[in-house]
Every structure is written in structure tokens, then in C-alpha cells.
Amino acid sequence: MAQRPREQLLVAPDRLDLENSEPFRQAAVALLDTLGQTPGRLVVDLGATQMIDSAGLRVLIMVRRHAKSRGTVVSLRRVSTELQSLLALAKMEDLFEIEDRAPA
Q1: Cβ distance 28 to 10 under 8 Å?
Q2: Is position 104 within any domain?
Q3: Tell me, what's the pLDDT at 101?
Q4: Model's pTM, two decimal places?
């Protein structure tokens, strides 16, 4: 029987911007550390996130790169329509699994 990948959940803040991108990155790395080098998933819940700026996009890419080096997938949960459009505009929509979208 195949074993399910281990999973960790990270709830993103209401604003993922220059001010709080570093604490978010640190929290993500700490969760990735608990997964070790075994395949897993880091789920980032964006349901409460109202605003993401370029620093927020950058930190999502940094987290994904760190996760990928460990064999871990980053999945975005409850992605707003606005964020989905921003990811598409930045050509980043294929970098992440989109688990589900937030209600409009």
C-alpha cells in the first residue's frame, strides 16, 4: 500500500507584503524542516489573505524553491480570484498546485 505524503499547513497572514514576508518565510522553513527530506506537501492557506505585493510573491517563490529541493510540493488553498489573476499575470500559476479557490 502506498503511503500518503506527509503534510503541513501554513496559514498566510491577511497581508503578505514586505513587512511580514520574512516571518512567513521563517514559519514555512520551520514547517518544511519538520517534514525532513521525505516527500511531503506544504499547504499554504490563503483564505484570509487580502493583499499580496511583490515581496509576498517573492517569498512564495522562495518557499517553493526550498520545498522543491526537499522533494516537497507547495499547494495553495483558498486562493482568491484576485490572487489567481495575479499569479497568472506573473506567470506563476504553474509553479504551485492550486488546491481550491476561495468563494467569490
Answers
A1: yes
A2: no
A3: 66
A4: 0.89
